[in-house]
Design a protein that fits this description.
The chain is 36% helix and 11% strand. The chain contains 8 helices and 5 strands. A 5-stranded mixed beta sheet has the order 2-1-3-5-4, with helices on both faces.
C-alpha cells in the first residue's frame, strides 16, 4: 500500500485520465459551465473522497455531479443532493455545519468519510459498467487504507451497492453468496478473516428524484445514518455510541 496514505491516494485519483468518455465530459462541462456558475473556475477532474483517514463510517455514493463535485472538487458539494446529505449529517451530529457549498467553506465531518465508486462526473449521471470497473481499484485502495478503523459503510442507491460489493470483497471482507440485495434499510455484516467485520447498510440515494418525490425523506435518511453511525461506534445527536462489541 502506498506509504503516502489517503492524501497521496487522493492526489493520484485527481490526476486519473483512464476513461476517455468521462475525461471529455467532465472537461467540457468545466469549459462551458452553467450560467449560474459562470464566474466559477470548475474543478473539472476526478473528485477524491472527503473525510478523515481514521473514519469509522464510510458513505458511498454514485459519482460526482457535473455542476456539483465536478465544479467544487469535493464530494456531494455544491448540489442539492449534497444539501440533503450534509444537512442530515449535521442533524445527527456527524458534521460541523448543515451546508456544503465549496471546498473552502470550513465543513468538517466527524468520523465519516464520503466517497464513490466512480470519481468522474458521467453524462446523464450514468457511468458505464466498464467505467465503473475501471474506477474500482481506487475504491479498493481507499478501503485498504481505511480498514484499521472503518466499521460500517452506508451505500446510497442500487448502483453504488452493486459497484461497492466487489470492492469490499477485494479489500478483504467476505461478501455472502448470493450477494445481498439492495434495499433501503438493508443491513448485512461482512466478516473478515484478518480483522473486524463491516456493517453494511443500504439507503436510497439522496438524488432530487428521490427527495422531491418523498421516496427518501429527511427522517428516513437521519434514521439510517444514525443506525449506521452507532454500528460504527460513533456517538450521534439523539443517540449514544454503539456497544463496545461492535467497535
Amino acid at each position: 500500500m502506498d506509504p503516502g496514505g489517503l492524501p497521496e491516494l487522493d492526489r493520484r485519483i485527481a490526476g486519473c485520465r483512464a476513461c476517455p468518455r468521462l475525461v471529455d465530459w467532465r472537461e467540457e462541462v468545466a469549459r462551458t459551465k452553467r450560467a449560474a456558475f459562470a464566474d466559477w473556475t470548475y474543478w473539472g477532474r476526478p473528485v477524491p473522497g472527503f473525510g478523515p483517514p481514521d473514519a469509522r463510517l464510510l458513505i458511498v455514493g454514485l459519482a460526482p455531479a457535473a455542476h456539483g463535485g465536478n465544479r467544487t472538487g469535493r464530494m456531494f458539494t455544491g448540489d442539492r443532493s449534497g444539501d440533503v446529505l450534509y444537512q442530515a449529517l449535521y442533524d445527527v451530529g456527524l458534521a460541523s455545519q448543515p451546508t456544503s457549498v465549496h471546498a473552502g467553506d470550513g465543513l468538517e465531518v466527524y468520523g465519516v468519510r464520503v466517497t464513490s465508486p466512480v470519481h468522474c462526473a458521467p453524462p446523464a449521471n450514468k457511468p458505464t459498467p466498464g467505467e465503473r470497473d475501471t474506477c474500482r481499484p481506487w475504491l479498493v485502495q481507499e478501503l485498504h487504507l481505511l480498514r484499521p478503523t472503518v466499521r460500517a459503510a452506508l451505500v446510497l442507491g442500487a448502483f453504488g451497492w452493486q459497484a461497492a460489493l466487489p470492492a469490499f470483497a477485494e479489500a478483504g471482507w467476505t461478501v455472502p453468496r448470493p450477494r445481498p440485495a439492495f434495499a433501503h434499510g438493508a443491513h448485512v455484516t461482512l466478516p473478515a478473516a484478518d480483522g473486524p467485520g463491516l456493517h453494511l447498510f443500504g439507503c436510497f440515494h439522496v438524488s432530487q428524484r428521490n427527495t422531491f418525490t418523498g421516496r427518501l425523506t429527511p427522517g428516513m435518511l437521519r434514521e439510517v445514518l444514525r443506525t449506521a453511525a452507532q454500528a460504527a461506534g460513533l456517538p450521534t445527536r439523539g443517540g449514544g455510541a454503539a456497544p463496545a462489541e461492535t467497535r
